[in-house]
Amino acid sequence: MKITYYCDNCSSYINTARVEGLSLAELGLDALTEKKWLDIIKYTDEDGIILSSLCDSCAEKLGTL
Ligand SMILES: [Zn+2]
After folding, report:
1. How remote is the CA of residue 52 from the centroid of ligand 1, in Å?
2. Predicted TM-score (pTM) of this structure
């Protein structure tokens, strides 16, 4: 399974993680209803699961580091 991170603030690409054999349950996503899940997490065949995060420069700017 592929997980692609994009910056929530500037939408720049951050990182792609490739996890083998990781289930949605292990990601803690199974507790969400499918509808809720789709509201939070995007999925495309190309990028796999798309998660929002913060890139280094935005994290620095926003003072979250
Ligand atoms: Zn950013």
Report:
1. 10
2. 0.65
DSSP string, 26-43: TTT-TTS-HHHHHHH-EE
pLDDT in tens, 20-57: 776 666 666 666 666 666 666 788 888 888 988 899 99
**Residue ranges per structural domain of the chain:** 2-56
Q: How far is the CA of 63 from the centre of ligand 1 (A)?
A: 12
Radius of gyration of the chain (CA): 13
For ligand 1, the distance from its centroid to the CA atom of residue 8, given in whole angstroms, is 7
Q: What secondary structure letter does DSSP report for 20?
A: S
Q: How far is the CA of 26 from the centre of ligand 1 (A)?
A: 27
